[in-house]
Amino acid sequence: MKKYFLFLVFIFGCFVLLFKLNEQGNQLLSLEVPGDSQELISTRSGELIKGDIVRGKIKSRYSNLGQITIRFNNNHHDSDDIVLFKIKEEGNNDWYYQVKIKTDQFQPQALFPFGFPQIKDSIGRTYVFEVESLNGQQGRGISIDSQKPQFTAKSIFAKNELISNKKLSLYFIFHKILDLRYYPSIVLFSYYPFVFLLFLYYYPNNKINFYPSLSSKIESIPLIKNHLFSTLIILMIVFSLIFGGRIEDINIIFIVGTYLLYSKKYKYESRIALFYSVWLLILALILLIFGQQSSANSSAVWAYMFLWITVVQQIGEDIFHFHPTISLEEYLSQFGLKVKPKY
């Protein structure tokens, strides 16, 4: 029964992954190439006003190039600008395609797709593009968002073409899976419930039941032996900080809920959560100093969540007389950190 449940959770993760990729503009029948931010140059930093031009260059890795997507920021106001998008192969004098787009269609911090007639033989070729503001006004303009990727090249494949050509289908599936490396946070978001349940399945009663020879080696590692789930949760949080971006509500619910259940099982005292909260807040300040605003915001959110855990556990200790058995000093000592116990 557990195996079937794990399989269903994995399938559910696949659907979530497809949904989140589509939400990010990564269509099911497309292959993407993220652009190098250094290849995106604007005549003006910040808001684009009339006459300003953003120029970019990208090499297509696939055939059927049909879209260039660019991430814009509306700077917290409505924009009534019109931009002129142009694209051509590098070295050509004439533009391959031009189109005017109203900026009121742009979503904040989202990749906007500029479509054009498919270029069948685009594989291995380099293309240049321009986005020119035609009506931009100071205080009402759009700008290029700093979140990466700032732009991508997207190749579109027809369903009938993939069905009829087995070799092309295998090529597409292989590269579609390979492209997931550009979306690590989405992959984590989609599959970490499955990974966690996999640990629960193979690690009942603190015993790893698969591959006995490997199990003994794994269990000999103190970090895994004593704090497998704590380590897993910490890695998830670190992962979200490294790759930045918006923290989904379900991520918070899952990780915080898991920590509460795990701390209840092993009777952690509230100071352990407070320890995480303080260090995450310090980390947020450090990241902010170094200009990593997105990661700093994520760290601050996690600090706030662990502060709430501290409050909940403190209420349990003071009002409901919950008696923890593992203190902060004992918890840290199992990670090899020696702390003088409180008196």
UniProtKB/TrEMBL annotation:
- Identify the keywords attached in UniProt to this record, alphabetized: Membrane, Transmembrane, Transmembrane helix
Residue spans crossing the bilayer: 182-203, 224-244, 273-291
- Please identify the protein, giving its name as recorded: Uncharacterized protein
Q: Please spell out the taxonomic lineage of the organism that makes this protein.
A: Bacteria, Candidatus Woeseibacteriota
